[in-house]
Amino acid sequence: xxxxxxxxxxxxxxxxxxxxxxxxxxxxxxxxxxxxxxxxxxxxxxxxxxxxxxxxxxxxxxxxxxxxxxxxxxxxxxxxxxxxxxxxxxxxxxxxxxxxxxxxxxxxxxxxxxxxxxxxxxxxxxxxxxxxxxxxxxxxxxxxxxxxxxxxxxxxxxxxxxxxxxxxxxxxxxxxxxxxxxxxxxxxxxxxxxxxxxxxxxxxxxxxxxxxxxxxxxxxxxxxxxxxxxxxxxxxxxxxxxxxxxxxxxxxxxxxxxxxxxxxxxxxxxxxxxxxxxxxxxxxxxxxxxxxxxxxxxxxxxxxxxxxxxxxxxxxxxxxxxxxxxxxxxxxxxxxxxxxxxxxxxxxxxxxxxxxxxxxxxxxxxxxxxxxxxxxxxxxxxxxxxxxxxxxxxxxxxxxxxxxxxxxxxxxxxxxxxxxxxxxxxxxxxxxxxxxxxxxxxxxxxxxxxxxxxxxxxxxxxxxxxxxxxxxxxxxxxxxxxxxxxxxxxxxxxxxxxxxxxxxxxxxxxxxxxxxxxxxxxxxxxxxxxxxxxxxxxxxxxxxxx
Length: 546
Prior knowledge:
The chain is mainly α. 47% of the residues lie in helices and 8% in strands. Among the domains are: 180-304, no CATH class; 477-544, no CATH class. The protein has helices at 12-21, 28-35, 39-48, 55-63, 105-118, 122-134, 139-142, 145-158, 163-172, 174-179, 196-203, 215-224, 305-314, 316-331, 338-350, 355-364, 366-369, 381-392, 396-401, 410-413, 417-421, 443-457, 476-479, 487-498, 505-515, 524-539; strands at 94-95, 98-99, 228-232, 237-240, 243-249, 253-256, 266-267, 284-287, 290-293, 461-464, 467-470. The protein has a 3-stranded antiparallel sheet with strand order 6-3-7. Helix 6 crosses helix 8 (145-158).
């Protein structure tokens, strides 16, 4: 049974657990400060993203030339700045506020990783990563990083909305319309509708395979969603300054292709047309036992939108259980019992599929904080490396003050390492996304985690274009508020920062004996050994758990 009653008291360890699972980790000092608050109020603020100071982050995000570029590459007179070509138009693909050409997968991934590391509203970033896996969309087919980043921003902004609202936003998203062929779904005349999205919106996004629907429901919904696509404004078709003859769509506006006037000059395919193609079906559809009139949708809804929303009301038990299973596997444990699943599904239904309310209940609950659910999951590679970067790297203030800028060189760090570590941001192989927990671990992905660990803990460099770059600048002195008195104190502080699962005392003592076989002195040599110890913790089995 999942005890969903709220915690009445909590500790710094509890707060750290919240930070790991519902964000990208917090420092021991931040955990202690959070634990000084009442747990209910603290979790409410965590879910809502309130009570945090966004001033510096928003300023850096808006004003820096390129916060994710490698230090000094294409540098101007300021060693912390980067020269980038300007792009006209208000909706150029933005990274750090610069109107820079960044329709490049590596740059898009880098911008997301940077934001995960420094964004004050940690749960919004964690929810975006969670939904990116569930609504998995891949750039290898979309072929437009700007649209992929726009989709990810939508998931960050709306990841705690009502689930039917989020499902509709995803269904209308331009990247999704390309990914699952909504742009090809034509039900006019004798055309056979494309069923790809209609199938996956139930099988992968809301109910699960063969769970309360049949092939006729798929065919009917496909007809109901025919013509769902997007158009492109003149300002959103951006020329590449390094190749002016090519242009890319920076963003799109959802439209139903129904033969009406085109409010924008361009169709999704970048063809210029004054009218939209006629791709709509006519009459009514019968879906999940209900009838929907395509000619007269409810006010404010697109034709077929009411059918998508009806999934939650026609199949509430199946939809709630589907969501509960995914949420539990990501935020609590993959080894839940059937009663646990039923309890969390009932809670989601009681919340009216309001994801914010559901997450508030879950993250306050005794079930979430239960001892057996701590360090019970293998952490995915993206959150694992971001969390370690937050723990060991510069904070935003010190990174912004450094010259050259002390930010991680994320544009070098994500490619090819994230892909090889098992999670290629913005480009999953297919609509099933990535399997979680122990599925993250295999001999190849572990090898690339050790490469990340070396960059994070040992400050190892990479060489590109004849220049050496430190991927994750760090200072050991910042890891220790006070000089450690002995080797055990070094270990304990690093464990408090990195928050691995329990490390057996015999393993800890073996490490310390190898690193400090004789008298302990805190000096430059010991700082190097502290880096080596941090590397060992990150590479250990316990270091993969969160």
